[in-house]
Amino acid sequence: MAALGWLTPRRRSATARSVLAGEAAAEAARESSLQLEREREEAAAGPPAEPDFPVAGDARAAAFFDLDNTVMQGAAIFHFGRGLYKRKFFRRRELARFAWQQAWFRLAGVEDPEHMQDARESALSIVKGHRVSELMSIGEEIYDEYMADRIWPGTRGLAQAHLDAGQKVWLVTAAPVETATIIARRLGLTGALGTVAESVDGVYTGRLVGEPLHGPAKAEAVRALAVAEGLDLSRCAAYSDSHNDIPMLSLVGHPYAINPDAKLRAYAKDREWRLRDYRTGRKAAKVGIPAAAGLGALAGGTAAAVALHRRRH
């Protein structure tokens, strides 16, 4: 039997190094097992959900929405001008100017201060001498004719989410406050902040009270309303498409870039602001379109306006 001793395993005493190696392997196995278990749990749960927003019942929070190209495609002042032309408030020459401004706005996708100022001055000269009540009544008709079908459903849904949470929702726009108020009422919003045109005894004088509600002026209006309403701006949200509204967006704790122009998109990404783009396919308005395309769109829009004028006369 001694000859078979080599078949019997020899008992060797464990050295300190082998004990250490065994314990380390056991610990590593335990850690890897726990890690795999955590990964399986995370995979089953999916990505972490964003906290609920807007917060239901937060009475010190509200939402502020820019109007042009944020809530509505195009610029309200231009649609309003089309409606006034239809009612013979001005001549075809002014319509051509409105058509050019609207075509530029849609192609460039940004607000040009010079164009916007020109549009406001045109509108002020047109409404001078007319009663406020008359323009409000006409504004209701113009909304149905030119604006109702241009509301972005996605942005409308965001506004409704705030309303459903019990929060107030305000439009903040350079458009006339009367026009903005009509749109806010039709959408079921709380109200509107807009440019105020001077009136005496209910008749427009053709002048503004202060300046257009644009850029920094919007931020000041939101700040003033927040004080009056007892709002905490860090809990409020603001929505806009334009880099001109960065002062307003920077005021609140929840800024959103909606259908943003190039400058706002870059600014929002740098600061990790939330972004929503409801334009489908190719952008409805794209910076850098060749000049020929812009002229073609303008020619088409103007030709259509002239043809419409001829058919009616």
Any overview of this molecule?
- Helix content is 51%, strand content 13%.
- The protein has 313 residues and is of the alpha/beta class.
- It has a six-stranded parallel β-sheet, sandwiched between helices.
- It is elongated.
Using only CA atoms, what is the Rg?
31 Å
Per DSSP E runs of 2 or more residues, the count of β-strands stands at 8
The SSE order reads: HEHHHHHEHEEEHEHEHEH
Q: Which strand order do you get reading across the main beta sheet?
A: 3-2-1-6-7-8
- Percent strand: 5-15%
User: How many separate helices?
Assistant: 11
Structural class: alpha/beta
Mean pLDDT, rounded to whole units?
Answer: 78
Helix content: 40-55%
Characterize the biggest β-sheet.
6 strands, parallel
Cα separation of the termini: 126 Å
Low-pLDDT runs of 5+ residues are 105-109, 281-313
Q: What is the 3D form?
A: elongated
Short synopsis of the structure:
Helix content is 51%, strand content 13%.
Task: Please describe the structure with a list of short key phrases separated by commas or semicolons.
about 325 residues, alpha/beta, two-stranded antiparallel ribbon, 11 helices, elongated
What layout of secondary structure does this protein have?
Blueprint: H1 16-45, E1 62-65, H2 76-86, H3 92-108, H4 113-127, H5 132-147, H6 153-164, E2 168-176, H7 177-186, E3 191-195, E4 197-200, E5 203-208, H8 216-229, E6 237-240, H9 246-249, E7 254-258, H10 262-270, E8 274-276, H11 291-312
